[in-house]
Write a structure and sequence with these properties.
Number of strands: 8
Membrane topology: Peripheral membrane protein
Subunit structure: Part of a ternary complex containing SNAP25 and STX1A that can be dissociated by NAPA and NSF. Interacts with STX4A.
Protein name: Syntaxin-binding protein 6
Order of helices and strands: HEEEEEEEHEHH
InterPro entries: Sec3-PIP2_bind (IPR028258), STXBP6_PH (IPR037821), STXBP6_SNARE (IPR037822), V_SNARE_CC (IPR042855)
Helix content: 40-55%
CATH architecture of the largest domain: Roll
Distance between the termini: 100 Å
Number of helices: 4
Strand order of the largest sheet: 4-3-2-1-7-6-5-8
Largest sheet: 8 strands, mixed
Number of domains: 2
Radius of gyration: 32 Å
CATH class of the largest domain: Mainly Beta
Pfam family, one: Sec3-PIP2_bind
Oligomer: single chain
Length: 210
C-alpha cells in the first residue's frame, strides 16, 4: 500500500472523510523546533493533504500529516478549514518548480514538494476543490502555471473530452438529418414527377382513344 493510500485509510476514513489529494513536502526554511516538540522521535516525513467530509454539507480541509522515522503509522498534526486558506503561491509561472507557499489566516509555510509533477497535480486538485466548495472568499492563486489554472488541467481535460464527444455526435446527427432531409426532398420530387408523368400519359391515352 502506498503512503498516500495508507494516510487516507488511517487518518481520514475513520472520521468519515475522503482524501482528495496529498503532496509530500519539506520546508524550504527550517524552523527551530525544540526536540520535545516532535516527541523526541527525530526525523519525519511530512504530507500536506486535502480532504472533504462525506456528510453534507461538505466541509473541505487541509491537514498536515507526519510519519516519524522508524514508524509505519501516520500522525495528524495541524489542520485548517479550506475557508482559512488565503493564498497559494506557485513561485514561478514560467517553469516546473517544486517550491510553493501556503498562506492561511493564522499561518504561513514555505514548502518544497518531492517533485514538481506531484506539486502540479496537488495544485490542480486544490484549485478545483476551491472552485467547487468555496462560494464566497476563494484563495488567491499567484505565480502558477496556466495548466494548473485550467489550461491543460487533468481535471478539465476529461470534461473537455466529453464536451468534444457530445459536439461531434451532435454534428454527426445534424449532418445525418440534413442528408435525410435532402433524400426526402429528392423522393418527393421524384414522386411528383412520376405523378405528373402518369397524368400526362393518361391524358394522351384518352386523347388517342377519342
Amino acid at each position: 500500500m502506498s503512503a498516500k493510500s495508507a494516510i487516507s485509510k488511517e487518518i481520514f476514513a475513520p472520521l468519515d472523510e475522503r482524501m482528495l489529494g496529498a503532496v509530500q513536502v519539506k520546508r524550504r526554511t527550517k524552523k527551530k523546533i525544540p526536540f520535545l516538540a516532535t516527541g523526541g522521535q527525530g526525523e519525519y516525513l511530512t504530507y500536506i493533504c486535502l480532504s472533504v467530509t462525506n456528510k453534507k454539507p461538505t466541509q473541505a480541509s487541509i491537514t498536515k500529516v507526519k510519519q516519524f522515522e522508524g514508524s509505519t503509522s501516520f500522525v495528524r498534526r495541524s489542520q485548517w478549514m479550506l475557508e482559512q486558506l488565503r493564498q497559494v503561491n506557485g513561485i514561478d509561472p514560467n517553469r516546473d518548480s517544486a517550491e510553493f507557499d501556503l498562506l492561511f489566516e493564522n499561518a504561513f509555510d514555505q514548502w518544497v514538494a518531492s517533485t514538481a509533477s506531484e506539486k502540479s497535480t496537488f495544485f490542480q486538485i486544490l484549485h478545483h476543490t476551491c472552485q467547487r466548495y468555496l462560494t464566497d472568499r476563494k484563495p488567491e492563486f499567484i505565480n502558477c502555471q496556466s495548466k494548473i489554472m485550467g489550461g491543460n488541467s487533468i481535471l478539465h481535460s476529461a470534461a473537455d473530452s466529453v464536451t468534444s464527444a457530445v459536439q461531434k455526435a451532435s454534428q454527426a446527427l445534424n449532418e445525418r438529418g440534413e442528408r435525410l432531409g435532402r433524400a426526402e426532398e429528392k423522393t418527393e420530387d421524384l414522386k411528383n414527377s412520376a405523378q405528373q408523368f402518369a397524368e400526362t400519359a393518361h391524358k394522351l391515352a384518352m386523347k388517342h382513344k377519342c
